[in-house]
Amino acid sequence: MICKLTEFKEQPRAQKPGHKVLTEQLVIRTAEAYEHHEQGILASEQRYRRLFETAQHGILILNADTAQVMDANLFMQRLLGYSQEEFLGKKLWEIGPFKGEAASKATFAELQHTDILHHEELCLETKDGRMIDVEFISNSYTVDQQRLIACNFRDITERMNREKAAAQGEQAIRASELKYRKLFETAQDGILILDAHTGRINEVNPFLLKLLGFTHEEVVGRFIWELSPFGDIVSNQEKLMQLQKDGYVRYENLPLLTKDGRMIAVEFVSNVYSTGERHVIQCNIRDITIRKQAEDALETSHTQLRSLLARLQTVREEEATRISREIHDELGQKLTGLKMDLIWAERKLRELLGCSAVNAILQRFSDMPKMVDDITTSVQVIAAELRPVVLDKLGLGTALQYEARRLHERIGISCKVHLPETEQEMPPELSTALFRIFEECLTNVTRHSQASEVKVELKTEAGWVTLCVQDNGRGITGAELASPVSLGLLGMKERAALLGGKITITRDEDHGTVVTASLPNHAIPTRKRTSYETCDDRG
Fold first, then answer.
1. pLDDT digits (tens, 9 = 90+) for 379-404
2. Which of 201, 199, 196, 235 is nearest to 221 (CA)?
3. How many CB atoms lie within 10 A of CB 340?
4. Which alpha helices (H) appear in 187-272, and where do they start and end?
5. Is the dihedral of CA 435, 438, 443, 446 positive or negative?
6. pTM of the prediction?
7. In the sheet where 69-72 sits, what is the strand order?
8. How would residue 533 be classed by pLDDT, with cut points 50, 70 and 90?
């Protein structure tokens, strides 16, 4: 165009004098304006191309008449995975993501007849088979009398994933809230939800209302210290702050007063947690009244049984003492009298020697005193086993030494007893219990331990008496300790428990067994042991 204007300028033609200069100036100005216009168009096209190529969303330029792709920007190529060559000149339905011909033709027809078309969510398949979500906007325009359609594709896959995740999260939260609400409403424990800052009750479940006898309106909205059952736990704002600071409080057996005046026992647990920006205190209240009544009844029954057992053991010891005394005294005296009569009769018969019949009777009489002596010894042993006289007359220490000597005499097991220099006075029931425990220990040594030596130590200090019996046998096993048929062990423990003491039974490192009985002594002046109270050396 500029060239033509120049040629026109150079062509000679008749001009009026004076108009020549004006004409030349007009032609030059026109050419300059056109050139400036052309440069503006070029700059505009460059800006468009730069925006087109650097756009952060996909752009397809379609021929509005043929549906052929005229251009595709770099983002569109990367978005769907196709090259420029795979886009250009193809009709819309010939390209992978739009290959549904009927659908694509229908969509294209809609594009042709609509200046602006907007789809907020459109799913496309990339060349490598991935499915992506895009937002689609198209608009039509005309360039050099050619109608074009610009299709803009914005990748919203991440946004959709976030929205789906958020929707799933909200759904999960709603489901969780529903589950919580169902648990809250149907829980068989009482639940209170408090505002951690104010102590005001926000929620209460039906079970607690029924347990305490209050209505929903009487509880919700009030401060917890205004609700009488909890006045001792959270009596004011200061105690609430302490509860919030501790974060966790537990009461195993807490008495609560219901609205109708009944006293119930509950287990109370509270903890502090956050729900968003709000801090709350959840209090769980479990009714343990029935369990507590059962425990109390069991404890009462246990106490009664122990009292009965103590009484039975006392009666048994008293009866054994009485029988032992009668056997020892009355039967012993009569046997002594019988022996004296037999000796007198033997002496009289010897005066009649010479008669064969008398000789035979005399022979029998000479053996009878020995038989009476044997019977007397048996009576003494029976009496001692029923109740050793030495325990009542000389005390526990001497009785332990006496039993230790009898053990050695019977089966050859060495038994050394170590006694304190001073011995506390003991009530009869204490000395009897310790002696019977010692007897049971020796019985177990004889029957089970396979021991060759037993060490016994009696200690008295600080109002307690401790008896320790240790053997060098095979050692007691865990199964034997736990066995329900180990009645001897159970008997020892019960004897100690009846007097407020305890027994520990352990396996020694050298495979022996150690039995330690510790019982309180409430009687207690001390006295020095005298020589006549010692049956053997104290080791």
1. 777 766 666 777 877 888 888 998 89
2. 201
3. 12
4. 206-212, 216-219, 237-246
5. negative
6. 0.47
7. 69-72, 58-63, 146-155, 131-143, 116-125
8. very low
User: How buried is 360 (Cβ within 10 angstroms: 0-12 exposed, 13-18 middle, 19+ buried)?
Assistant: exposed
Residue 135, φ and ψ in degrees, nearest 5: -100, 130
DSSP-derived pairing of the beta strands 414-418 and 453-461 = parallel
Q: Which two tokens stand for residue 219?
A: 């509880």
Which secondary structure element, helix H or strand E, spans residue 53, and what is its range? helix 20-54
* Residue 286 three-state SS: strand
415-455 per-position pLDDT tens digit: 999 998 887 788 888 988 898 899 889 988 988 888 899 99
217/309: higher pLDDT: 217
**Euclidean distance between CA atoms 414 and 442, whole angstroms:** 11
Cα-Cα-Cα-Cα dihedral sign, residues 243, 244, 247, 248: positive
With the C-alpha atoms ordered 94, 98, 99, 103, is the resulting torsion angle positive or negative? negative
Q: What are 295-311's pLDDT values in tens digits?
A: 888 888 877 777 777 77
Let me know: does 224 contact 230? Beta carbons within 8 Å.
yes
519: Cα separation from own chain's centroid:
37
Residue given tokens 């809250």 in the structure block? 184
